């Protein structure tokens, strides 16, 4: 287990970083980040990135931009930050806010800031039905960021105090940071923790890292319940105030976690699945959940 001294994300000085782009999709994320920062006594660092390099490429010039264009971009960016700060104070009057305007690219900036942030928070737009629009910046940050990245959709419910925190447990060591973050969040929120472990690998002939065909089918569920208990045991000792409900299911994790998101205040998943492949920095389950969940989703990266 990582101590606060070893984990930069848990230092008292670590801010909650909020990336804003001026679109309505950010509103719920601003409210969520402001309330979270206020409850935890952390600085809310609101960032807007102009990405002048992309603008130069779009306008066909890599060397210069017309000064009036740059001025107009800066003026608009300042308005974005003022509006975001105003909405944050409206949601949490006691929150401490810092704003930052930069000409850097947003994805690279937020990935770098995630190394020392308590959380990085991003807003996402919901499209018609269950489909979600996930922009390139969001996908890059959730895939390549450090620590915990929280995505708040514009249709997520505003407040669900008292609802549980739900964590997807895949049973592998690579999922340990997600469990740690879920316990910490449940403790901070005085919430129940629902730990969901799904038999998600059975269709691929692997079961918790082993060939399931070599195991008696009747022994699978007790074995997985034991595995889940072992994964949670040390964290339950560290967070005795957190009431834990364990859930082991035979179907894949995607639909189960999406269903839980309808009544959860936060859904926590690891950035990669059981295999933990370095090349697959955002696992298929995590990416699917980002599209379908109806509460804020926290993607937790291993160190």
UniProtKB/TrEMBL annotation:
Keywords on this record? ATP-binding, Nucleotide-binding
Q: Per the database record, which ranges form the UspA domain?
A: 15-153, 165-301
One GO term in the molecular function aspect is: ATP binding
Specify the superkingdom.
Answer: Bacteria
InterPro entries in alphabetical order:
Rossmann-like_a/b/a_fold, Universal_stress_UspA, UspA
**Family, as annotated:** Belongs to the universal stress protein A family.
Q: Mind telling me what this protein is named?
A: Universal stress protein
Q: Which organism is it from?
A: Nocardia bovistercoris
């Amino acid at each position: 287990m990582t101590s606060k001294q070893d984990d930069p994300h848990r230092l008292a000085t670590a801010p909650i970083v909020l990336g804003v782009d001026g679109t309505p999709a950010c509103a719920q994320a601003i409210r969520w980040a402001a309330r979270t920062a206020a409850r935890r006594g952390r600085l809310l660092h609101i960032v807007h990135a102009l990405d002048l390099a992309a603008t130069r490429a779009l306008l066909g010039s890599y060397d210069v931009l017309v000064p009036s264009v740059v001025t107009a971009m800066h003026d608009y960016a300042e308005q974005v930050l003022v509006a975001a700060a105003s909405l944050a104070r409206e949601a949490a009057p006691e929150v401490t806010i810092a704003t930052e305007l930069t000409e850097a690219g947003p994805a690279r900036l937020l990935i770098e800031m995630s190394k020392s942030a308590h959380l990085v928070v991003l807003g996402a737009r919901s499209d018609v039905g269950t489909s979600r629009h996930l922009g390139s910046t969001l996908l890059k940050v959730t895939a390549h960021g450090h620590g915990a990245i929280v995505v708040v959709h514009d249709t997520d419910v505003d407040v669900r105090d008292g609802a549980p925190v739900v964590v997807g447990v895949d049973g592998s060591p690579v999922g340990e940071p997600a469990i740690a973050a879920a316990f910490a969040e449940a403790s901070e929120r005085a919430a129940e923790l629902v730990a969901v472990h799904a038999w998600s690998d059975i269709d691929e002939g692997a079961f918790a890292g082993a060939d399931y065909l070599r195991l008696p089918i009747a022994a699978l569920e007790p074995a997985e319940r034991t595995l889940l208990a072992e994964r949670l045991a040390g964290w339950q000792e560290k967070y005795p105030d957190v009431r834990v409900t364990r859930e082991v299911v035979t179907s894949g994790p995607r639909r189960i976690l999406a269903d839980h998101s309808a009544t959860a205040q936060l859904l926590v998943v690891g950035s990669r699945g059981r295999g933990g492949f370095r090349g697959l920095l955002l696992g298929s389950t995590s990416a699917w959940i980002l599209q379908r969940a109806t509460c804020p989703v926290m993607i937790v990266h291993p160190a």
